[in-house]
Specification:
- By secondary structure, the protein is mainly alpha-helical.
- The protein has 6 helices and 2 strands, in the order αααααββα.
- Strand 1 and strand 2 form a beta hairpin.
- It starts with a helix and ends with a helix.
- About 65% of the residues lie in helices and about 5% in strands.
- It is globular.
- It has one domain: dinb family like domain (Four Helix Bundle (Hemerythrin (Met), subunit A), Up-down Bundle), CATH 1.20.120.
- It has a two-stranded antiparallel ribbon.
- The longest helix has 24 residues.
Length: about 160
């Protein structure tokens, strides 16, 4: 594995570990607390369901771009996709959601570990970034959860 991929793998692993720890330390009642008031108005449980679905979706997107695909269509509706996909898992237990997230992240790690420098430079359309290199999409994957965790932490401190 080249150094760029090794760095991304370390970041993905570290972010997975910190995500797991963050959510494992929540109180059971916290999982039902509403975090967002706009759009889908997600609870913490729904945010973690979103993590699972986003991880899986982004890994498939990245693999498709590396294999020569263009990425998502230009008219892709990210908000609708996120709401629909997160709803599929919103009733899973916290433990199940965290297990599913860890498994999905491991698949991403395994995928990235097999990439070359040329793969990291391939470009495709990401639903939020627009046209972006694989390396930037992967970086967003580990930053994405941190952003939501920061928002959850702020909401719980209120």
């Amino acid at each position: 594995m080249n150094e760029r991929c090794a760095h991304l793998v370390r970041r993905l692993e570290g972010a997975c570990s910190s995500t797991q720890t963050f959510f494992e330390n929540l109180q059971p009642a916290d999982w039902e607390k509403q975090i967002y008031t706009e759009g889908a108005a997600w609870s913490i449980r729904q945010v973690v369901a979103h993590f699972v679905m986003a991880e899986d979706g982004m890994a498939r997107l990245v693999a498709g771009i590396v294999d020569g695909g263009d990425g998502v269509p230009e008219d892709f509706d990210l908000d609708s996709y996120n709401e629909y996909k997160a709803k599929q898992l919103e009733n899973d237990s916290p433990e199940t959601l965290l297990e599913k997230f860890a498994a999905a992240r491991q698949k991403t790690i395994d995928l990235v570990a097999g990439f070359t420098d040329a793969d990291l430079g391939k470009q495709g359309r990401h639903p939020w970034l627009g046209m972006a290199a694989i390396e930037e999409i992967i970086k967003l994957m580990y930053r994405h959860n941190k952003i939501h965790q920061r928002e959850i932490r702020a909401a719980l401190e209120k």
